[in-house]
Amino acid sequence: MAINLTPVDRAKYAAARRAVDLVEDGMKLGLGTGSTAAWMVRALAQKVRDEGLRLTCVPTSARTADLARELGLRVVPFEDAGWLDMTIDGTDEFDGNLALIKGGGGAHLMEKIVATASDRMVVITDASKEVKALGAFPLPVEVVPFGWQASRMLIEELLAAMDVMGTQASLRMNGSRPYITDEGNHILDLSLGRIGNPRQLSLALNQVPGVVENGLFIDICDAVVIGFPDGMVELR
Ligand code: 5RP
């Protein structure tokens, strides 16, 4: 691997390498999205070349699918794979209960579907993503484009009624246009500061008309691999 990596990338790569050690021949794998997940896809492709493994891979975004195919991994449509053995993905935040905020890369809808259709979700990260309470990272909420302004108002009312700190929901932009997810939706990023009850908030957000899925992953992640710039890892 290139030696000119930043300390953060060395940490992400260390976590990715360790998670790839868990992969066995014949497995059906969910591939996450983001820079940490991209390190995992590279490490996985190397392992497949070195050990001649036969794997079936289901990516969680078009970006990951492109990278996986480019590196020679066998990518299949989700519907052809059925239940998966393991999903390996990055995160934006994780807490002591292994609850997550994901979706900084805009892929949390597909990531959540794939992770929950897997026996095991393993998260790979550098140490900076660990938090005492979720919420410093803006919480992504995917909404259908039709009436997204109404969904935003309802979300802001909901947050105020739940007494959640901060009620601002910003439409994610891509330059001068709204960001469009792989599923054709928009994203509202909620600046909350601190989420007291992530499970309650996740359930309530998904009741709002127009909301497709929020970025809280509760009771989905089974293990976190934290990488460090010196190549060491810690498992949680
Ligand atoms: C994408 C995600 C990513 O896993 C998350 O944003 C972390 O990204 P990175 O590994 O680049 O820090 O949830 O939707």
Automatic annotation (TrEMBL):
Active site positions, chain numbering: E111
Cellular component per GO? cytosol
Q: What does the UniProt keyword field contain?
A: Isomerase
EC number(s) per UniProt? 5.3.1.6
Indicate the family of this protein. Belongs to the ribose 5-phosphate isomerase family.
Record-given protein name: Ribose-5-phosphate isomerase A
Q: Which PANTHER family match?
A: RIBOSE-5-PHOSPHATE ISOMERASE
Quote the subunit structure annotation: Homodimer.
Q: Which HAMAP family does the annotation name?
A: Rib_5P_isom_A
Annotated GO biological processes are: D-ribose metabolic process; pentose-phosphate shunt, non-oxidative branch
Q: What class of enzyme is it?
A: isomerase
Catalysed reactions, semicolon-separated: aldehydo-D-ribose 5-phosphate = D-ribulose 5-phosphate
Name the pathway it acts in.
Carbohydrate degradation; pentose phosphate pathway; D-ribose 5-phosphate from D-ribulose 5-phosphate (non-oxidative stage): step 1/1
Q: What is the purpose of this protein?
A: Catalyzes the reversible conversion of ribose-5-phosphate to ribulose 5-phosphate.
Which superkingdom?
Answer: Bacteria
